[in-house]
Amino acid sequence: MSDPSPTPSAAADPAVDAALEEGLAAFAARDVEAAHLAFGHAYRRDSRAPRAMSWYGVTLVLVERNSNLGVTLCDQALRAAGPDPELLLNVARVHLALNQRERAVRPITRGLELWPQDARLLAARAALGTRSAPVLPFLSRKNPLNRTLGKLRHRWRQRRSPAYELSPLALGLPGDEAP
Predict the structure, then answer these.
(1) Which has the closest alpha carbon to 86: 7, 25, 2?
(2) Model's pTM, two decimal places?
(3) pLDDT digits (tens, 9 = 90+) for 62-101
(4) Statement: residue 13 has pLDDT above 90
(5) SS3 sequence of the chain
(6) What is the pLDDT of residue 98?
(7) Residue 62 near residue 97, CB atoms below 8 Å
(8) Could you tell me the sign of the dihedral formed by the alpha carbons of 132, 133, 134, 135, in that order?
(9) 14-133: CATH number
(10) Residue 55: CB partners within 8 Å, gap ≥ 6?
């Protein structure tokens, strides 16, 4: 199997690249409004650039709460550029912002199938966590006893483990590295 390219082709317009870099720096600094302005500028300069389309879609959901257009832009960017870790993470960020955890897991799993060592995807999977086995494996997950015991186990684990931030802004950030 040939190794897919880890990043989509760069935009031909240097202004688009500059706006994307400005937006990424603002996003890494958690200044979502500034990132939204920069990504919006990049998207208006070249509305067919997959990275600009995807990042603008993420900030549309986070800043303007425009979930329809944001999800559509992220999906279109992914279709236009093909699978890419950055674009897959953006799809996951959008779904996480919309409280659709199950849908956020899918693109990360898909990305890890293609790039099993990608630090951003591994960090995203670790942040989202994995579903624990039922407390009583011989009963179904939906059994009231398993559900009650599972809730108690979850509360106990929450008290004993450090709190990790699970937000679209932190998703896919390995350690202290920027996206």
Answers:
(1) 7
(2) 0.77
(3) 999 999 999 999 999 999 999 999 999 999 999 999 999 8
(4) no
(5) CCCCCCCCCCCCCHHHHHHHHHHHHHHHCCCHHHHHHHHHHHHHHCCCCHHHHHHHHHHHHHHHCCHHHHHHHHHHHHHHHCCCHHHHHHHHHHHHHCCCHHHHHHHHHHHHHHCCCCHHHHHHHHHHCCCCCCCCCCCCCCCHHHHHHHHHHHHHHHHHCCCCCCCCCCCCCCCCCCC
(6) 93
(7) yes
(8) negative
(9) 1.25.40.10
(10) 20, 23, 24, 27, 35, 39, 42, 90
Neighbours of 143 (CB within 10 A): 15
Q: How far apart are the C-alpha atoms of 27 and 49, rounded to whole Å?
A: 18
As a whole number of angstroms, the distance between CA 123 and CA 3 comes to 21
Tallying the residues shown for the chain, one arrives at 179
pLDDT in tens, 21-38: 999 999 999 999 999 999
CA 130 to chain centroid, in Å, comes to 16
Tell me the pLDDT band of 179, cut-offs 50, 70 and 90: very low
- Residue in this structure with the two tokens 């659709």, named with its chain if needed: 100
Residue 73: CA count within 13 A, CB half-sphere: 27
